[in-house]
Amino acid sequence: MKEPKQLSVSAIENGTVIDHIPASGLFKVIQILGLDKINNQITFGTNLESKKLGRKAIIKLAGIFFEDDDINRIALVAPDAKLNIIRGYEVVEKSVVRVPDEIIGIARCVNPKCITNFESVTTRFKVVSKKNVALKCHYCEKITDQEHMVIL
Amino acid sequence: MNKKSLVSIDDLSTDEMVSILDLAEEFEKQPSQTLLEGKVIATLFFEPSTRTRLSFESAISRLGGKIVGFTDASSSSVTKGETLNDTIRTVTNYCDMIVMRHPIEGSARLASEIADVPVINAGDGANQHPTQTMLDLYSIRKTQGSLDKLNLFLVGDLKYGRTVHSLLMAMSRWNTTFNFISPEELRIPVEYKLYLDKLGLRYYEHSDFTEIIKEADIIYMTRVQKERFSDPMEYEKVKNVYVLRNHMLRETKENMKILHPLPRVNEIHTDVDMNEKSYYFQQALNGVYTRQAIITRLLNLK
Ligand SMILES: [Zn+2]
Fold first, then answer.
1. Contact B127/A138, CB-based, under 8 Å?
2. Cβ(B244)–Cβ(B258) under 8 Å?
3. Domain match, B145 and B112 both
4. Is the Cβ of A139 closer than 8 Å to some Cβ of chain B?
């Protein structure tokens, strides 16, 4: 199976391709998934043309496969991301990122008077809207919307 | 859950609320009991709030409990830079329950997760003050006989007023009709209107006390503070619009009562105090019974 849109970055034998990342969110995805701390071969492409996103980024990870819970963590910065699981140079599985019901330790609470901005507390949010992502802080109960979201 | 705390009014189911109100009624009949004998309750006031603290301490004392704590952060280790985490971890060893007031939002939730004992939130910044809401509910039920189908007027600062928001959320469980009376700049936030829309509850917005005041069952007054206005001229224009005076009550309903979380500044003229429809001082007394009920319920003593 050929994926012509992915030809701009070299192919991998086994691993995961994360496609349709907004170009502006690439470095946050790297950070959330901790890709800067692993030794696997990783190829990044960014500012690629995309009809849907304008400019998109793509990540090819050799020898890496994600659990749903782990990959869904990037939903805050790459809600339209698509995953291709590659085995023997072939796409064997496709999946999309889903916004989880709860977000733990990824975003900062927008409320400057929130305890999580004063003490070392892991932030925790209930996802109250998945379309235009809105998070309700478990502590101060204020809403952080997509526009004001800061990724830790 | 073995250890139960009260951090947010939403932590209580409707049944739990009603059950606490019933229990508060028992305490009103007999406020002095020895249920807390041998118990120590910590009252940690990281910011001063004399009224709330006295109400809690009165509730605890009447039940025979002992109190440890501090009345503002300057007299505690907090000024030396101790984290909330460390303060709570220490205090939890000394007591059976923590009552805390803190200027930072979400601090009570965090404390409830750290402490081994139940935590009662006595106000966390602009966020929650659930015992205030419970005493408001108690006062409404007591004066109206029921919480069902009432016409509730919320007056003043509806934008920032924490007590107003919590009361709205609580009363929305009882088929309430809401009338919001506020200056343009301090209107009720849209999220609350959406919430009421979702529940199918009726609400109306006004910019002054209109003829509709005749229909009120409860008028809940709050203070309109100058600091809340971006334009001081705007405040000058409206400052007297939200002051309740005795003559305005002439045609109000027999059962109507006026509530206020106190302290009052000038939003209720003192000429209202003698009117039997004023209820704010009794409301404060109800706070003692309500807090007795909440404390004994969380400690599984009642
Ligand atoms: Zn928060």
1. no
2. yes
3. no
4. yes
Name which of A90, A93, A120, A96 is nearest A108 in CA terms. Answer: A120
Q: Are B195 and B233 contained in the same domain?
A: yes
Whether B110 sits inside 8 A of A115 (CB atoms) is yes
Using the predicted structure, report yes or no on whether residue B159 has a pLDDT greater than 90: yes
Q: Which domain CATH number covers B252?
A: 3.40.50.1370
Q: Which residues fall inside 5 Å of ion ligand 1, going by CB?
A: A 109, 111, 114, 137, 139-140
Instruction: Kindly state whether residues B96 and B220 are assigned to the same domain.
Output: no
* Structural domain for B20, as ranges: 2-128+287-298
Q: What band does A111 get if pLDDT is binned at 50, 70 and 90?
A: very high
pLDDT on residue B227: 86
User: β-pairing, B203-206 with B177-181?
Assistant: parallel
Amino acid type, B129 = H
A137 C-alpha to ligand 1 centroid (Å): 5
How much is the average pLDDT of B82-93? 94
pLDDT score, position B1: 42
Six token digits for residue B159: 């934008």
Q: How many domains does chain B have?
A: 2
Gap between the Cα atoms of B41 and B87, Å rounded? 15
Contact B128 A138 (CB under 8 A): no
Residue B70 near residue B88 (C-beta atoms within 8 A): no
Residue B132 has pLDDT above 60, yes or no: yes
User: How confident is the model over B228-243, as a mean pLDDT?
Assistant: 87
Q: Distances in Å between the alpha carbon of A48 and those of A85, A89, A117, B12?
A: 21, 22, 36, 51
Give B-chain residues touching A142 at CB under 8 angstroms: 105, 127
pLDDT bucket at B199, cuts 50 / 70 / 90: very high
Instruction: Inform me whether the pLDDT recorded for B77 exceeds 80.
Output: no
B242 in the same domain as B178: yes
What pTM was computed for the model?
0.88
Q: Does A131 touch chain B (CB under 8 A)?
A: no
State whether the Cα torsion A33-A104-A82-A20 is positive or negative.
negative
| Residues of B assigned a catalytic role | 51-52, 80, 101, 129
Position B302 confidence tier, pLDDT thresholds 50, 70, 90: confident
Supply the Cα-derived Rg of chain A in whole angstroms.
Answer: 16
Mean pLDDT of chain A: 89
Nearest CA in chain A to B82: A119
Is residue A5 pLDDT above 60, yes or no? no
